[in-house]
Specification:
Chain lengths: 250, 481
């Protein structure tokens, strides 16, 4: 589904990604771990299409198409979703309106009829229940005045509504207490399916107790330093990222 | 970013949607202003002597005034001798029904989406259509008159209800008020007159569509609304103008009078021609709007959505004379391309326990310059007066500007005045977030801007709110690059 080849990217004059190679197939969950500043979030944003980053080398194929040539909204319409580490506030725009507008934009892109309001509300109710969200959250402005946990839950709700093919979760666990973490993880797990791939970007192993990955990659200085299965994450939990320095010394 | 720039270019070159000219023979007088011109206007309207005298007093006073320069808008000097002060579409002397109206006029209204015939049947809104300077068609007048409501052209009211006009004309905005109001007093052509008798809740929302048509013709509208004790009226004013290369001067005056327990709600959507992308052409809109809460417990609300004009200069104000009277001002002002706006309000608290609310939302895009200028004045006797002001500015792009000039004068220690202000930019972050969820950039900007204006839209009558959203998105198309 996703093939990243020798990806280099920079912001201003700093090279952040220095040759990433990664393959993600449908049905898989990949975890990308690594210390602060290793380029995890940059990778997520380059996939989503943020314009602050310049890709200097390499290519990214998404369902066989050149992802880097696509506009941000085109990537979204083609099923790429990113859950933000810092979800953005939009004052005066209700959560409900925002979600419906997003769904309809994607439908318009595919020349599908707009969603029926009753169907939309029904779906919304179901997904909110799943995530244990209060009804009034939908009437409130997008992320405005939300607690950290509410924002993250809202991201997962959007994901559940938009049903993406490839979901990239950027530090979704940060700022969550253990109960919220479990709920968010449950939300993600219900989305696991043979047609869908999920990339979980995280600093800590604890999220992976709930969302069990098929593969774990450790990013360091803009490259994938190690790849492995879930046991790699356990190892990191025990020993930390110290091995990276040992590796660098050689 | 290159595709966005292309989009910006494409849309900014888009023609003004309402920029067409109706080909109607106009009955106009030669350009220029003199006592003779004032007399000519008055005689064309067959006015009584007292009104001519009033106009002449205004004209003579105007000659002593200097054009104001305190505002933060810039424009080439206006040559008042180049302006035509009277223009009326030629028509049959008397109209008994819409059938007698020049079909081309009706066609124009249809292009604007306000077919009178349909409005009559469908919308329940009485329309007094002012085309250039003379009112040509009035609907629903009979329904209204059954309730005792008087609603019609100003020039007609002068003949039919001279005592009322004489009593209230200039009672809120005196002919000496300011340069532009004084000019209007001398040469005003027509406008609307509205009188709601005691205890009557006006059964319809009243609306007038103004439209500048003849080239180089200044529009000098005069509107007077009187709400007697315990009455209520909601008045809608909407404007669109055809495209012109030369600047057109517009100096209107609106006076509102609310007696005890009366309420006037005045809503405006202003979409005069703003000029082209290079700042050429466009309407100069110098308007004096003021309401007097004369009686206790009276209330006047101004709601405006200003998207048009090259220059907008207006400060709809409320004089809170009656105890417990309430003044409100809700405003959205948009300046895109080279538009300039200097707008705000004045709340003058005189009576006890008077209350005013000011919510102003300024949006600047392109090289637009948006100024909020407001005065809150609490007089000595205004015990327990309250004011709340909130002035928010939203910037789109980095070549536009927003400025806030709040003036507060308090002479009573029991009063409470609050002022909040904020300036924000439509963030790259917000747009990126929306796009990541599938919304194209233009839709994202519209959504963010509409969210910003939400509190003001909530005050608009339903159909106006819809129109305001449309106007805003048209005004801001292509403003993000």
């Amino acid at each position: 589904m996703l093939e990243i080849k020798n990806l280099h990217a920079r912001s201003d004059d700093t090279e952040i990604l220095r040759g990433i190679n990664l393959q993600v197939s449908a049905g898989e969950v990949h975890a990308i771990m690594g210390p602060n500043g290793s380029g995890k979030s940059t990778l997520a944003h380059v996939l989503a299409g943020r314009e602050d980053y310049e890709v200097t080398q390499g290519e990214v194929l998404y369902e066989g198409k050149d992802l880097l040539e696509m506009e941000v909204e085109e990537r979204a319409a083609n099923g790429l979703f990113m859950a933000y580490q810092y979800p953005v506030e939009i004052p005066g725009v209700s959560n409900k309106y925002f979600l419906k507008a997003a769904m309809n934009s994607i439908r318009k892109y595919h020349k599908q009829p707009l969603i029926d309001t009753m169907d939309f509300l029904e779906l919304l109710k179901e997904k909110m229940k799943l995530l244990g969200m209060e009804k009034n959250m939908m009437e409130r402005s997008v992320n405005e005045g939300f607690s950290g946990g509410e924002k993250k839950r809202n991201e997962i709700l959007q994901m559940a509504m938009l049903q993406p093919k490839l979901a990239v979760l950027d530090e979704t666990d940060s700022g969550l207490d253990i109960d919220a973490l479990r709920i968010v993880a449950d939300g993600v797990n219900t989305l696991r399916s043979p047609e869908r791939a999920i990339i979980v970007v995280t600093h800590y192993q604890r999220l992976l107790d709930y969302i069990v990955p098929d593969k774990v990659h450790v990013l360091a200085e803009g490259q994938i330093a190690r790849s492995g299965d879930k046991s790699l994450a356990m190892e990191l939990e025990k020993d930390g990222y110290a091995f990276l320095e040992t590796a660098a010394a050689h | 970013m290159s595709t966005d720039n292309a989009l910006l270019k494409e849309v900014s070159q888009q023609e003004y949607k309402h920029g067409f000219v109706t080909d109607i023979e106009a009955d106009a007088i030669a350009p220029g202003l003199s006592e003779d011109v004032v007399r000519l206007i008055s005689s064309k309207k067959d006015e009584p002597q007292w009104l001519l005298d009033w106009r002449l007093k205004a004209y003579r006073h105007w000659l002593t005034l200097e054009e104001p320069e305190w505002h933060n808008v810039h424009y080439p000097p206006i040559n008042y001798q180049d302006t035509i002060y009277y223009s009326a579409p030629k028509q049959q002397p008397k109209l008994n029904s819409l059938d007698e109206v020049d079909p081309k006029l009706l066609e124009t209204y249809e292009k604007l989406g306000i077919p009178l015939e349909e409005q009559k049947v469908l919308s329940g809104v009485a329309v007094d259509a002012v085309f250039d300077s003379v009112s040509v068609a009035t609907t629903y007048k009979e329904t209204l008159e059954k309730e005792g409501v008087i609603f019609g052209p100003f020039s007609e009211a002068v003949h039919r209800f001279p005592e009322l006009v004489k009593k209230y004309l200039g009672s809120v905005v005196p002919y000496t008020d300011n340069f532009f109001a004084t000019l209007n007093s001398a040469v005003f052509s027509d406008g609307s007159f509205c009188y709601i008798p005691k205890g009557v809740r006006c059964p319809l929302e009243l609306s007038t569509y103004f439209r500048i048509n003849a080239q180089n013709t200044g529009q000098f509208e005069r509107t007077l609304i009187i709400a007697e004790e315990g009455s209520y009226v909601s008045y809608l004013e909407g404007c669109t103008a055809p495209k012109r290369d030369e600047n057109q001067l517009h100096a209107a005056v609106v006076e509102l009078v609310a007696m005890k327990d009366a309420q006037i709600k005045y809503s405006t959507v202003q979409n005069w021609y703003p000029g082209d992308a290079d700042g050429k052409g466009g309407i100069f809109n110098f308007v004096t709007k003021r309401g007097a809460c004369r009686g206790d417990n009276s209330k006047i609300s101004w709601t405006q959505v200003e998207t048009g004009s090259a220059i907008t200069w207006k400060y709809p104000s409320v004089i809170l004379q009656g105890d417990h009277s309430v003044g409100e001002f809700y405003s959205v002002a948009v300046t895109a391309n080279h538009q300039q706006a200097d707008t705000g309000t004045k709340m003058i608290h005189i009576g006890k326990n008077t209350k005013s609310t000011i919510i102003s939302k300024g949006i600047s895009a392109g090289q637009g310059q948006n100024n909020y200028r407001g005065l809150v004045k609490i007089q000595k006797g205004a015990t327990n007066a309250r004011n709340f002001s909130q002035c928010d500015s939203l910037l789109i792009g980095d070549r536009c500007g927003a400025h806030t000039f709040p003036y507060i004068e308090v002479r009573n220690t029991t009063s409470k005045v609050e002022h909040e202000a904020s300036t924000s930019k439509v963030g790259e972050d917000q747009i990126y977030y929306c796009r990541q969820r599938g919304l194209p950039t233009e839709d994202a900007v519209n959504m963010i801007v509409n969210g910003f204006c939400k509190e003001v839209y909530a005050e608009l009558p339903m159909e106006f709110a819809v129109e305001a959203r449309k106007l805003l998105s048209v005004s801001l198309e292509g403003s993000v690059g």
